Amino acid sequence: METIDFDSYSERKAFDETKTGVKGIVDTQISEIPRIFRLPQGGLPDKKPSVPASDFAIPIIDFADVHVSREGIVEKIKDAAANWGFFQVINHDVPLSVLEEIQDGVGRFHEEDPEVKKSYFSRDPTKKFVYNSNFDLYSSSSCVNWRDTFACFMAPDPPNPELLPVACRDAMMEYSKHMMRLGDLLFELLSEALGLSSDKLKSMDCMKGLLLLCHYYPPCPQPELTLGTNKHSDNSFLTILLQDQIGGLQVLHQDCWVDVSPIPGALVINMGDFLQLIAKDKFISVEHRVLANRAGPRISVASFFSTSVLPNSTIYGPIKELISEENPPKYRDINLEEYTKGYFKKGLDGTSHLSNFKI
């Protein structure tokens, strides 16, 4: 893979200093994408499944009867988390109006007057609300990704609403409440899927932190030459993703890229690195990516359950109940803040950060 040469660094810096992101480039009505966005190999390698798409699709789990047929749903989650690391949830009780409002709010912010957005621009990940393009702009050896993002920690200490942009303030506060509620249920079901008491994962503070990452993927004139998001696994315990109907999210399964087809009203759930570590590989944190597209803008909202960059003295290791003489620990203990620093430093370069912690 190409390393960042001086030219690339200067071009990345010049791009960064505009503070208008990829949206700013698109607004100049370019027909060719700048060099820093181009994949080193000149395009996307094709790794498509050879079987029909219907045989190769991430599981869809219906939560409509979760309180009646809970055991059956736990079994489905256990299977999906172990084999795919991903599933989609329908009938999850988050109102459609709440999903639509957060998507609209994210769009409103990213399409706001550039001067308004610039006032929120920062590269300090510990700030309450941060807007920028590519958190790993200066550290990743891969191409710059075709997306802009704003991020905000909604828990454990929710921001003062006055600090949030008017365009998305109410939507973020409301959406976060629903994510905490759904997260609560998901962590109970995942605990049960590990054969543990319902409150096990919650008692380990797995849902102590909630980080909202709100992505905006502008339309791209040459989508085959770049990526919306490079291949990566998530720096979280669990991620709940709301994606719009444009599509582009792909999961790496059996060495093939499988499309996560948008389903109206559904939410995509995936396991993060920290959950794989404490669950001793019983659940898998799977690599995924987002394709660039001409249709855009594509909007997605990722809710990361993780304190990541926030101070958190808890040390995480394999859950004690899952360890025995026959089943020794597979990873060494980690501090989330330290893990995240390494994850950020490495950037989305297509390699697993978790593999560095294997025993």
TrEMBL record:
The keyword Iron applies. Pfam families: 2OG-FeII_Oxy (PF03171), DIOX_N (PF14226). Its cofactor is Fe cation. It comes from the Eukaryota. The keyword Amino-acid biosynthesis does not apply. Residues 208-308 form the Fe2OG dioxygenase domain. GO terms for molecular function: dioxygenase activity; metal ion binding. Keywords: Iron, Metal-binding, Oxidoreductase. Belongs to the iron/ascorbate-dependent oxidoreductase family. This is 1-aminocyclopropane-1-carboxylate oxidase-like protein 6. It comes from Cardamine amara subsp. amara. The lineage of its organism: Eukaryota, Viridiplantae, Streptophyta, Embryophyta, Tracheophyta.
